[in-house]
Amino acid sequence: MPFYSIDQLKPGMVLATDVTDMSGRLLLSKGQAIDPKHLNIFKMWGVPEVQVQDDQENGPEDSPTVDPEVMRHTAESLKSVFSGNDLNHPAVAEIFRQAVFHRSRSGVSPTVERSTVAASESTPSSNSLEMRQKIRNRDIKLPEVPTIIFKLNDTIADPFSSSDDIAQVISKSPGLAAQLLRIVNSAFYGFPSRIDSISRAVTVIGSKEISALAAGIATMEIFKDIPKNVFDTQAFTHHSLTCGVLARILAAGGNIRNTEQLFVSGLLHDIGRMVMFRYFPRQVGTMLAAATDGETCLYDVEKRVMGFRHTDIAADLFEKWKFPVALSQNVVFHHRPTSAQDPARAAVIHLADIIAHALGEGKSGEWCIPTLDTAAWDKLRISPQTLATIIPQAIHHLNFLTSIFTGES
Ligand SMILES: [Fe+2]
Ligand SMILES: [Fe+2]
User: Domain HDOD: where (predicted)?
Assistant: First the structure.
């Protein structure tokens, strides 16, 4: 019996086997005909593919064809940005294959765009440790925690908080509430019936999950006003969202619980860089210029110029804003996941970030593809074949979700 990825299924096809979610709960029984509502349920629970009876169709549709010459050119160009990775590793090979196909088909530049921000007058800082010390001493202030995020994180930490408490906090910000409802009503969540209130969202999705999602959205909102000449915030939001979407689907595919927290972790994974762009534009100019030399990744340039990395800033910010430790760990260790308290969860963000860069969806200022930590990959029970299903699934949801975040629709 053939396997069909979710995007290849058509209403009327009949299931050849039972379909279960990641915890083994039965979603749909063998012999049942698939209808459009079921497709949303599969997506929501992260079911990457199902087996259908082989007398239904002539097999999955062929993927759209792409000019082999374009593919060859894209592959050649991409090799240089994958230079820190072993293309013979099965996961890297699959990511590379998907990236070549996606970039060739969608017209994403085959070469990775490097920043055009000019170097500032400043020289690499010799007193960067002093600067971090200043941040810690609050001489250079990290932004104060906005009331809504403070209240949301307070609610997450309080075991006695009720769904009404959470709904009340979120409803005080009509813009946030509306954005949240659009997200939970999107195909990415795939609920069969419309969720029309925050209280209902809390009931259906869970209080801590909705609070974390609201805190993540509100945090991204705060850093939106970075001047365009410093960095393209919209492209940054798209990179962040790509990582979040991939993280949620990867987690479901790898049987990892609490997929919502991983979505928010992905969304906020580079928040430290947003803080850098917003508060240290002079040093950022130096960094971005230094990172275009074609040899050094921005992650390492940060250390050289600033004396610390965006993940260090995230650690300070999350501590100050009292984000849950588990979420902070996923973010702080996304470049070295095996050092996290829960390496598998940090590995999800690590992998999602690599894929987001490989696909060329959005920008974070980084021009190279981060090197896959193969020990972290081994902690994930995801096969390279599953990546082939997960990546197109994530791409499918991206544009609509980005339009919600950037307020373009
Ligand atoms: Fe990062
Ligand atoms: Fe990133």
Answer: 142-337
Give the DSSP H/E element, type plus range, for residue 49: strand 49-51
What distance in angstroms lies between residue 364's CA and the mean position of ligand 2's atoms? 6
The predicted structure's pLDDT at residue 338: 96
Region 21-39: mean pLDDT is 76
* Structural domain containing residue 293: 75-141+226-409
Q: Which two tokens stand for residue 133?
A: 């010390």
Question: Is the predicted pLDDT of residue 230 greater than 60, yes or no?
Answer: yes
H or E stretch covering 164: helix 163-171
For the CA of 300, the nearest ligand: 1
Place of tokens 């994930």: 380
Task: Identify which ligand lies nearest to the alpha carbon of 369.
Answer: 2
Element (H, E) at 136: helix 128-136
In angstroms, what is the span from residue 215 Cα to ligand 1's centroid? 20
Count structural domains, the chain: 3
Run of H or E including 4: strand 3-5
The pLDDT score that the predictor gives to residue 116 is: 42
The answer to the question of residue 66 being in a domain is no
Residue 69 C-alpha to ligand 2 middle, in angstroms?
30
Instruction: Give yes or no for a contact between 310 and 270, defined as CB atoms under 8 angstroms apart.
Output: yes
Ligand 2 centre distance from Cα of residue 366 (Å): 8
Do 264 and 311 lie in one domain? The reply is yes
Ligand whose nearest atom lies closest to the CA of 333:
1
